[in-house]
Amino acid sequence: MDAQTINPTRTKSSYSPAFLVILAGFITSLLIANIIAVKLIDIWGWVMPAGVIIFPLSYIIGDVLTEVYGYRRARQVIWLGFFCNLLAVGAITLAMALPPAAFWDGQEAFERILGYAPRLLLVSFLAYLVGEFTNAYVLAKMKIATQGRWLWTRTIGSTLVGQGLDSAVFIIVAFLGTIPLEGLVLAILIQWGVKSAYETVATPLTYLVVNYLIGVSP
Question: What pTM, to 2 d.p., does this model score?
Answer without folding.
Answer: 0.76
